[in-house]
Each structure stands twice: as structure tokens, then as C-alpha cells.
């Protein structure tokens, strides 16, 4: 925001009496936003490095599953799925 000062020129950021301005508050907020952006960029970079080092994606298998889902021929074995979920979550190996 701005207002006209006693001398007729605009005073950027002057919105309160006593000399406090939005410019000072804005600079602090901008610095915080910049810090957050840099931290987020570092997190994204770390994630991308981890993801690229993980197992490769079998594009052929993905396409086959996608096609099977689309045409209704994909069958889910509920017992096998539940056993795998228990194994991953609890460390329990089902027979």
C-alpha cells in the first residue's frame, strides 16, 4: 500500500502511524519465503536423487497392467495381497 506524504510524494509501504511500514514486514516475509523455498528445493533434489537410484520401472509390465485394468481382465488375489501387506507392515510372513 502507499499514501501521499506531507511533501506530496508517495511513501511506499507506509500504512501505520509511528513509522512502521509494510516494506519492513514484507522484507522479513520475503526472506522467510526464500528460506522455505531453498529448503523445499533441497528436499526435492534429495528425493529425485533417491528416486533415480531406486529400482528401474518396467514400462512393459506397467503397460500390460494398465491394459488389463482398462479391459477388465486384471484379477486381484485378495489373500496374496493381504499376506503381502502383513509382511510389509508387520514383518509377518504368511504361508
What report would you give on this structure?
Strands 1-2 form a two-stranded antiparallel ribbon. By secondary structure, the protein is mainly alpha-helical. Strand 1 (2-4) and strand 2 form a beta hairpin. The model has no long low-confidence stretch (mean pLDDT 76). It has helices at residues 22-53, 59-71, 78-90; strands at residues 2-4, 10-12.
Q: Specify the biggest β-sheet.
A: 2 strands, antiparallel
What is the end-to-end distance? Answer: 70 Å
What's the mean pLDDT score?
A: 76
What are the low-pLDDT stretches, counting only 5+ consecutive residues below 50? none
Total number of strands: 2
**SS field, number of helical segments:** 3
Question: How would you classify the helix and strand content by structural class?
Answer: mainly alpha
Strand order of the largest sheet: 1-2
From N to C, what is the helix and strand string? EEHHH
Strand content: 5-15%
Shape: elongated
Helix content: 55-70%
From the alpha-carbon coordinates, what is the Rg to the nearest angstrom? 29 Å
What keyword list fits this structure?
elongated; 3 helices; mainly alpha; 95 residues
Amino acid at each position: 500500500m502507499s499514501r501521499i506524504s506531507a511533501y506530496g510524494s508517495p511513501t511506499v509501504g507506509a500504512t501505520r502511524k509511528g513509522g512502521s511500514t509494510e516494506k519492513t514486514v514484507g522484507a522479513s516475509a520475503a526472506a522467510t519465503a526464500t528460506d522455505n523455498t531453498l529448503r523445499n528445493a533441497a528436499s526435492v533434489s534429495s528425493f529425485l536423487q533417491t528416486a533415480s537410484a531406486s529400482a528401474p520401472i518396467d514400462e512393459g509390465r506397467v503397460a500390460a497392467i494398465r491394459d488389463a485394468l482398462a479391459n477388465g481382465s486384471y484379477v486381484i488375489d485378495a489373500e496374496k495381497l493381504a499376506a503381502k501387506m502383513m509382511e510389509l507392515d508387520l514383518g509377518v510372513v504368511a504361508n
